[in-house]
Sequence to fold (617 residues):
Amino acid sequence: MSLILSDRLYIDTTVDSSAEANRPAIGLHNVFALGTLSPSNTAAEAYKENIADYNTYDFWKPRTLPAWMDVELPQAETVDYFAIAGHNLATTNCTVTAQYYDNDTLSWVDLAPPITPTNNKDFLVLFPEVSATVFSVYITGDTPPRISVMNIGKSLRFPKNFYRGHTPISLARQSEVRQNISEGGYTLGVSHLRSGARTNVSVTNINAGWIRNNLEAFNSDAENKGFFFAWRPSDFSSDVAYCWLDSFATATNTNYPELMNLNMRLSAHVELGEEIKRAATECFSGEVGEYTDGTQEPRYSIEVFGQYVFATGWQGMFALDVSDPTNPTLADSTWLSLRGSGLAITNDGQTAFFVTDSGSVFGAQSDFYSIDISDPTALAIRHKITDTTALKNCTLLQINAAETYAFTAATATNRVTTVDISDPNNVSVSDTVTHADIDYPYGVALSTDENYLFVSSMNNDSVLAFDVSDPTSITYVSTISSAVDNADLTQAHGVAYYEGFLYVAARMDDLLTVLDVSNPAAMQQVTSTDGEGNLFEPLHVRVDAVNGVLYVTGGHGVAAFSILDPDNPEFLTLIDTNTNSTETRGVAFNNDYMFVTTWAASAVRVVQLESCGCVSI
Fold:
């Protein structure tokens, strides 16, 4: 029989006697890394290989439930444990069952009873040994979950138990913080830099034969891989964690030739969503600096490269030196008599591209600029094109990864346009199309594979998908709208793509709307959220893919959402950047700071990111 001891460990009571059941277990061997993976289905960009790469930042996620992940091995493997880390099975109310295929009965057999976790922490299952060539994990529940690490394998069991002097992993939490102090000595809050757990595993008088037979192989396998560690599986079942070696495990001789002492220093994974949420609850506004110049009036876009921030405004584009974030200073401006809007810069920080929009001062604009930013103190125009059809009054802009094409939309002529930027000194319009569903196109977002472009249509309360696999020949694919599909897309503004989903700022709904666009020909709404009442006329959206955070700007500042579950954004915090009742528009960030443009206040504001719990943990 199997006994559920806690939310973290389930142990089969037929495995061993009480003493044997408490022998520490390491779960490193993993059949999912040894054979051919065959999932029942997979959500867009949530690749099956992610469950076997030993990393917790990526994940596999099925598209629909029930779902399963099968693995077929070239030869039989013996297994006795099942473990998962980096998951949201509790949040999605899912049940998982580890199974093997019995060739004698031609049927699936459970390795252990089905498990329905009550939290999202790492867990481990121990069961009697089974040998097979095909294994599977079967998943049922309310919502498809994400799973970062999933192991079925043969555990390495220590030959003896240990107790005295050990710090259990559940009591070994560590958090690297920085206390923020003002010039006047006032406490401004704590910045959480990263969190985790760390402990030593020191076991004396272990059989030397066991050490010599296992230690070298374990060090070799664990050098670049994570593994599960259960200290005393029966007595202290909560002490289970997904770990990695800080340094190789070592052994020293004792006074007895047949015995040795073992030492391992381990760091452990901490459930990421829990840490981001905890840090966010301690958030303060974190604003540390501001640049204000009424002649610039920052409007749409902002980007950061090195110690410089680039933004668009009334005089075209300008650069700020933010080497001292508390005191941003103007480095240079193009000083063009036009209103700059959408902006993108190349990865090498040498070139910026921006489009232009209409304004009461300057009238309609139809320009696309290529700017040399290699010296931010001396911005120079590389090339400019004007097209009153393809580029009249553009809003936002995106460039592809190869930096060969730019994608934008013209609000005055209701067109979607691609621009060849492969030669920044000689840019040209590649293609431009219109469609009956386009009325004031605003936001643009490329899919990760760059085959599709998603465009919001503000006056038509809709989002359109275009095939741009050939940027010289744009092809309409489909539309999703408020009127036809009852989607929450009233005055759809900014859009951002991530993991097969499109995030849309529905301005007049005061909502962030999530669309499943994994099939661009059949887009559908998944959910929408008002960010616990913190969204007011949202405008722009931007994804921080490294940390799994989505930023939404608007009338109340910048709202931060966790998108560790891409189809279910979780509101984290509101960063108030709207001093003087202004309106936040563009947002950019690096490892330490967020930079935003504001409308009525004509300002660029700087926010210390760690103070908002939105840094890598």
Notes: The two ends are 39 Å apart (CA to CA). The chain has two domains: 30-154, 296-612.
